[in-house]
Structure formats: C-alpha cells, structure tokens
Amino acid sequence: MKTCNGNSSIVDMFEKGKVLKICAPMVRYSKLAFRSLVRKYNCDICFTPMIVASDFMRSVKARDSEFTTNERDRPLIVQFAAHDAQTLADAACVVAPFSDGVDLNCGCPQRWAMSAGYGACLINKPELVKDMVRHVRNQVDNPNYTVSIKIRIHKDLRRTVDLCQKAESAGVSWITVHGRTAEERHQPVHYDAIKTIKDSLSVPVIANGDIKYLRDVESTHQLTGIDGVMAARGLLANPAMFAGYEDTPLECIWDWVDISIEQGTPFTCFHHHLIYMLERVSSQPERKVFNSLSSTSAVIDYLQNTYGSV
C-alpha cells in the first residue's frame, strides 16, 4: 500500500445538477488495473472489490493481496463486508491513509455472505448498521473521510427508508441503492423505490442497477433525482461507457493491454476482462477462438491480427 498526498472529501464532488459516475465494487474485477482503465474514460469514483473486514484484520497476507492501490488511484472507496462495528472501524483506520472513504456492503445477496451475517442480511438490522457507521465516523481521524453504505431494498419500502434515515442520523456520507430486493436478480429495477428513498434523505443517493450506456445515466437521473449512478456489468462490457461510447472502442482495448502488462495483471483476469469487452463487437466464431487463447502473447497477436492497432 502506498500513501497518497492529501485527502479531500468526496462529498464535495456532489453538486446540484451533476450526476457522478461510479465504478461498482466487483469481486475479482474492480481491482487496481481495471480502476486505472475506467478512470481514463470519465469514471469519477472507483470502489475496490468487497473485502471481508475480519480476514483483512487477521492476516497481513490478506491485506497485501486484497487491497492494492497507487498515487493515481483516487478518489477511491474501499468496500468492506462486516457484521460488527469495531472490526469495520479497525479496518477503516488501516485503509484511511490510502483511500477517501469506506463503504459497508449491505447488498450482496449471495448465500455464503448472508449466512455469515454479511451483505443483504444487514438491511434487516438497522440498529447494527447505524452503530457501524457511527464507529467509523468516530474512530477515523480525518473529518473528510467518508463512510457510506450500499443496500438493496425491502418489499416493504418503509423499512428501507427507516434503515436509510437511521444511517443518516449516524453520520453516513451517502447511500447507494441497488433497486432490487435481495431475492431479485434480473428483474426490472424499481426506480420508484430509489426516488422515494432519495426524497426521504438529505445525504446524496447513488442509483445502482442496469446502467449499460451513458444515456442510462441521464434517464435514471430524470426518473429518480439521484446524485450519481454506479455501474458494474455495463462497465465490464464497455469500460469506456461513461465517456459516451456505445461499445468498447479499440483504443480502450489497447489501453487495457498496456495497463495489464505494466501492472503485472494475472493472465486469467487480463483475459476475462477482454472477453467481456469483446462480447458485443465480435462474432460467435471469433469469441470461441479468443476464449481458447492461453497466453498474453497469443492474445496480443490475436488482437493485432483481428482488429489492428490504434
């Protein structure tokens, strides 16, 4: 981990009429190299992948492997999975010199996370969430450092509003709302629910879910009045989405190659990102050939022969 100079507050980035564009926390994918790529294409804020706070505090090896950054990797939010306030606060204190804020995952619907007391099960424990927000706020010695939460919604939206208002009273900096319940996967996003939550709070609200093109940013803003949008799969398919590209431009593909080589990205991660980027711009036979490639040099040769250089 490398210390960055200065620490301005991300809250200052929220301006009336402006919609911040944010790269979501994605397990295996939103690591330093990918964050470096999307920052070149108008991404305002990046999240790390979700890190289990207890493992992070227990193991130096976990800290070194789970959290890597550099001086250009800002603004940066570190997302943690936690189910007790002090562990979250301890983890926040460790990463605070190297980041701009921490986020508590209250939205992961995966069975392993919920059975361990992490993720979306926390939306049913508003007092615990309130306590965790307050612990971070009180123990990180930096008034500009943010603490946020990322949630899913309840079927009874009054419970979600209550959760958010309790977090707000504890000092939460902003709230990201994935507009689906913990049981929903690919069902339509409940924009009306996001709007209700936005209208019930004074802190900024970020909308998450089905942001696939730049035009979705404005349409979501029009529907909900939110202060920012967070994208996951949309950015995997097209890391230049926030810059207005409909599909991944060739320049972005070669930027990914350069960044991956420079940062020593493992081949599997390097390859998987390219599979996502090329899915909408390649034919099925081309994808079959590309997916079978097993070395960086083979990938580079394929890209040069198929698409050429920038």
Molecular structure report:
This protein has 310 residues and is α/β, with parallel strands linked by helices. Helix 4 (85-95) runs parallel beside helix 6 (126-139). It has an eight-stranded parallel beta barrel, surrounded by six helices. Helix content is 43%, strand content 13%. It has 14 helices and nine strands. Helix 4 (85-95) links the parallel strand 4 (76-81) and strand 5. It has helices spanning 32-39, 53-58, 60-66, 85-95, 111-115, 126-139, 157-169, 191-199, 214-224, 233-237, 250-263, 267-278, 284-291, 296-306, and strands spanning 20-23, 45-47, 51-52, 76-81, 101-106, 146-152, 175-178, 205-208, 228-231. It starts with 19 loop residues before the first strand and ends with a helix. The active site is at residue 108.
Labels describing this entry:
2 domains, TIM Barrel, 310 residues, 8-stranded parallel β-barrel, single chain, disordered N terminus, alpha/beta
